[in-house]
Amino acid sequence: MPKTASPETHPPDIEKPDAHHEETLGSVSPQEHKRLIRRIDMRLVLTLGCLYCISLLDRTNLGAASIAGMQTDLNMNALNNGYSVTSLVFFFITYTVFQIPATVIIRKLGPRIFLSAIVVLWGVIVIGFGLVPKWQSMAGLRVILGALEAGFYPGCVYLLSTWYPRYELQKRNAAFYLIGSMASGFGGILAYGLMQMDGGVLTCALGLGSYIFLVDFPEQSPKSWNFLNETEAAHIVSVLENDRSDVYAEGSHKVWLYTLLYLLTTANTYSIAYFLPIILQDSMGFDVAKAQCLVAPPYVAAGIVMFLQGMLADKWRVRGPIVAVNAVLGLLGLGLLGYLQSPAPRYFGVFLATIAGNSNCPALVSWQSNNIRGQWKRALTSATLIGGGSIGGILGTTVFRAQDAPDYHPGLLTTMVANGLIVLIVGLLGLKFSRANARADRGGKLIEGLSGFRYTL
After folding, report:
1. What are the backbone dihedrals phi and psi of residue 170, each rounded to the nearest 5 degrees, phi first?
2. Tens digits of per-residue pLDDT, 114-166?
3. Of 32, 52, 213, 413, which alpha carbon lies 20 to 30 A from 349's?
4. Cβ 90 vs Cβ 185: under 8 Å
5. In the chain, how many domains are there?
């Protein structure tokens, strides 16, 4: 199929096609197009979201397990710093190093086989968590888990970016992330009821089932079971080519700024995921049951805000200002949590910090995907972005040290500084993109090598 570039400054909204877009629809009517998009959402967003949910449950339930007795059972203490090492070592080396190789493999092997296989394998590792006699053994298993999960999140982000036009992407990323983030909230309640880490069997079952429901890249979709026929696949490819002209993979300053932004964001999200139950118990004085249950409401609020932001960001076609506003909310929330005495405003601060960090994850991956053209280039920059996130995970899991209990001021201050840096970097990127768009409007250098392409601010 020949590639065609849209002469418009902004790509059309595929769910409300205009006159120009009617030509792209060809034999597929607008009503059939909407039904087709809903089918894609159900097969792709819902399936990936469920897998991400179980991924987060498997990787972040250490905080819940900790206050349920894991540190005592496995002899973790302030002297050996076993908890921080165990939560850190998952990210260390393997999760970061395997990001880019995993992205190359998913492009070659196909997402259906690749993603379902690694989910099954990490389920087997999680089963082993319940059998370890000491914390060093658990740390070793998490090294293997890091290698397996290295390709999962960037693979999901990349796969979503290949199926949707730029200004239909953030609400899908938000829905995907929303389903997963619910795991961080309700994982504590689940852990309080089970008091053990036995989710591996469920993980394996979902991994096997996902092989049926997952789909490959759009140009390969007729090969996916019971999904698109040749006409429908050709239609989706045509819509995407009209949007950014990069459906077909080619050979392989702002990329690093996006990576830094994601690093700073995940420093917040991982620190909250791992240490919030501990802070609620140690610093705010709640017992185990209340600490487990009080984790959930902030994540519910974050999910609602995240999806609403996704819809508005796609409608308004903006990304950066939303990221900056979230960072300001995070800065305020962490300040309330760390430097007030009354439990009520401190818990309100937990809401703000959780909303800010989690909402910025889909916003940033969408912003990066919007402004990068080319299949391999976008795949590798997605891996670089998530690799930065793993470094943020290292930061987030080490700044809250056992010796800083019960207030954990050094960790809270570090994450506050991270939010301030996010605001600064977003401002710099916004200025850079505005100037580039203005030069292109005056007939200057093409942006991303495509006539009519403009950076999303």
Report:
1. -65, -35
2. 999 999 998 898 888 878 888 888 888 888 888 888 889 889 999 999 999 99
3. 52
4. no
5. 1
Tally of CB atoms within 10 A around 410: 14
* Residue 37 near residue 105, CB atoms below 8 Å: no
Q: Which residue in 281, 269, 156 sits closest to 210, CA to CA?
A: 156
Q: How far is CA 15 from the centre of its chain?
A: 24
Enumerate residues 6+ apart whose C-beta is below 8 A from 14: 21, 33, 37, 165, 168, 239, 243
Residue 410 belongs to a domain: yes
- Say which CATH number the domain at 164 has: 1.20.1250.20
Cis peptide before 154 (omega within 30 of 0): no
To which residue do tokens 């960790």 refer? 411
Distance CA 79, CA 264 (A): 28
With contact defined as beta carbons under 8 Å apart, do 365 and 373 qualify?
no
Residue 342 pLDDT level (bands cut at 50, 70, 90): confident
**Buried (b) or exposed (e) across 8-44, using 16+ Cβ within 10 A?**
eeebbebeebeeebeebbeebeeeebeebbeebeebb
Domain interval for residue 88: 29-226+244-441
CA–CA distance, 370 with 450 (Å, rounded to integer): 13
What's the DSSP call for residue 110?
Answer: -
- Beta carbons within 8 Å of 345's beta carbon, 6+ residues apart: 336
**Per-residue b or e along 282-307, where b marks 16 or more CB atoms closer than 10 Å to that residue's CB:** bbbebebeebbbbbbebbbbbbebbb
In whole angstroms, what is the distance from residue 381 CA to residue 14 CA? 25
The answer to whether 360 touches 327, Cβ cutoff 8 Å, is: yes
Count Cβ atoms within 10 A of the Cβ of residue 133 and give its class: 0-12 exposed, 13-18 middle, 19 or more buried: exposed
Query: Hey, CA dihedral for 157, 158, 163, 165, is it positive or negative?
Result: positive
Q: What's the pTM value of the predicted model, to 2 decimals?
A: 0.80
With respect to residue 454, please indicate whether it lies within any of the assigned structural domains. no
